[in-house]
Automatic annotation (TrEMBL):
Residues 185-278 form the Peptidase M20 dimerisation domain. It holds the Pfam family M20_dimer. The lineage of its organism: Bacteria, Pseudomonadati, Pseudomonadota, Betaproteobacteria, Rhodocyclales. Keywords: Hydrolase. It comes from the Bacteria. Transmembrane segments: none annotated. The keyword Transcription does not apply. InterPro entries: Amidohydrolase, Bact_exopeptidase_dim_dom, Peptidase_M20, Peptidase_M20_dimer. This is M20 aminoacylase family protein. Gene3D superfamilies: 3.30.70.360, Zn peptidases. The keyword Endoplasmic reticulum does not apply. Coiled coil: none annotated.
């Protein structure tokens, strides 16, 4: 029997759980119902459960064989502040909240893996099932780490999986090295001297300084970075003035910076500050520059990524496993786990092969058909990492 076929009997049960979670979405750090559902499902399987880690996080512990090695498998549980536009029976029952990133599916696939792992226990060691809160921007991963995740549950490596629309259902993509970008924010305020718009020489115009900044900031990626390195600088807000005939006294600009490495990230932060201060000096305005770091880049370690690819090939067949996909400039807080431990974060195709509804779209829905492949992947990965139970 193929690995996927052995997970197929769970399909109906997992579909019901997935749709129940989909219908009852909860925002970051508010996943009380979801966490309780997860904990009760694990307890019903006879799995040791730890609640309330990093807020609403849950960890399940499954042991096989007598081995002392341990790994972590992680799913995220939170939904997004989006009003769902789907009309199917399991649509969100909560106005303004929706599982538009498929975390309902990730959580359910890890529950399916819990059931299969607990039934078989054919691996030699411990699997920690990590159900984390608040992936969407709020940092549930660092909250669990700060709450002692890796001290309480010592593991040698940690693994994540995210569904990916636009990839054939049940196929896999594994990156060696960067897979998702860092996501940082900047806020800049140029303060000049307000004046009558007909008498600019009596003021100091922050709008012109702001415009110069927008242009100059675009030279950082094109002129300062090594052309082989990737980076994005996007100015996404520019607020100034309220009248046709008034030069305002301030201009406020905001934006985001994306990179795949710590060095490029440092360079762009430094470069933006330098440009903002230089523009301020040349225009005679004051500047306040704030740079706030968000999620770091998600960087898979090579050896673990190779093991993930082998497990995925065993599950989906070599022709449905891709190791040459481009990384995404989106961000992912699994990055924090990978700062602490080796491991890899892979994509599982949500289908269809091209087009279809993308993540964070009000019409998105996780594809229940991919769950057997996801469950089989987790089980195969655990067995390959820890070896067969002795
Ligand atoms: Zn998302
Ligand atoms: Zn997501």
């Amino acid at each position: 029997m193929s690995l996927i076929e052995s997970a197929r009997p769970l399909q109906d049960k997992l579909t019901a759980i997935r749709r129940d979670i989909h219908a009852h979405p909860e925002l970051a750090f508010e996943e009380h119902r979801t966490a309780e559902l997860v904990a009760r499902q694990l307890e019903a399987l006879g799995i040791e459960v730890h609640r309330g880690i990093g807020g609403t996080g849950v960890v399940g512990v499954v042991r096989g064989g007598r081995g002392l090695r341990a790994i972590g498998l992680r799913a995220d549980m939170d939904a997004l502040p989006i009003t769902e536009r789907n009309e199917f029976a399991h649509k969100s029952t909560v106005q303004g909240c929706m599982h538009a990133c498929g975390h309902d599916g990730h959580t359910t696939m890890l529950l399916g893996a819990a059931e299969a792992l607990a039934a078989r226990r054919d691996f030699d060691g411990t699997v920690y099932l990590i159900f984390q809160p608040a992936e969407e921007g709020e940092g549930g991963a660092p909250a669990m780490i700060a709450d002692g995740l890796f001290e309480r549950f010592p593991m040698e490596a940690v693994f994540g999986m995210h569904n990916w629309p636009g990839m054939e259902a049940g196929s896999f993509a594994i990156h060696s090295g960067p897979v998702m970008a860092s996501a940082d924010r900047f806020d800049i305020r140029f303060t000049g001297v307000g004046a009558h718009a007909a008498m600019p020489h009596l003021g100091v115009d922050p709008v012109v300084a702001g415009a110069a900044f927008v242009q100059a900031a675009q030279t950082l990626v094109s002129r300062v970075l090594d052309p082989i390195d990737a980076g994005v600088v996007s100015v996404t807000q520019f607020h100034a003035g309220e009248a046709y005939n008034v030069i305002p006294d301030r201009a406020e600009l905001c934006g985001t910076v994306r990179t795949f490495s710590a060095a490029v990230r440092d360079r762009l932060e430094q470069g933006l500050r330098q440009v903002a201060e230089g523009i301020a000096r040349s225009h005679g305005v004051e500047v306040d520059f704030q740079f706030r770091r968000g999620y770091p880049p998600t960087i898979n370690t090579a050896a673990e990524a190779a093991l993930c690819a082998e497990a995925a090939r065993a599950v989906a067949g070599p022709e449905r496993v891709f190791t040459d996909r481009r990384p995404s400039m989106g961000a992912e807080d699994f990055a924090y786990f990978l700062q602490e431990k080796p491991g890899a974060y892979v994509w599982i195709g949500n289908g269809p092969g091209e087009g279809g509804c993308m993540l964070h779209n009000p019409h998105y829905d996780f594809n229940d058909e991919v769950m057997p492949a996801g469950v089989a992947y987790w089980c195969e990965l655990a067995r390959r990492l820890l070896g067969n139970a002795k």
